[in-house]
Amino acid sequence: PDHTEKETMWSLMDIKPQTGIELTESLAMLPAASVSGLYFGGKCSSYFAVGKITQEQVADYALRKKMDVKECERWLATMLNYEP
Q: Which residues belong to any copy of the AdoMet activation domain (predicted)?
């Protein structure tokens, strides 16, 4: 749910030169039909969804990412279980 991690993926894997896929200012991908994700293979692997997150979780995550809480809330807005 944290699209800011796309910046890390693009940097580590040299995505733009390798594929031509670009990130917009809001971290959408161009061309729009592009898809990215972290996929793990294994017989015990399964898909899971992340539920809504609390203020305490956002504060902890912001601290670990060295990001302002308000900025973190903006990026995670659809995942919050509270009104910022």
A: 1-84
- 23 φ, ψ (degrees, to nearest 5): -105, 135
Q: Quick one: pLDDT at residue 26? A: 94
Question: Which of 63, 68, 82, 58 minimizes the C-alpha distance to 1?
Answer: 58
Left if phi > 0, otherwise alpha if psi is -120 to 50, otherwise beta: which for 53?
beta
Q: What is the pLDDT of residue 49?
A: 86
Low-confidence stretches of the chain (pLDDT < 50) are none
Backbone CA torsion sign across 6, 8, 14, 17: positive
* Mean confidence (pLDDT) of the chain: 94
Length of the chain, please?
84
CA distance between the termini of the chain: 17
> What does the buried/exposed string (b/e) look like for 20-43 if buried means 16 or more CB atoms within 10 Å of the residue's CB?
ebebeeeeebeeeeeebeeeeeee
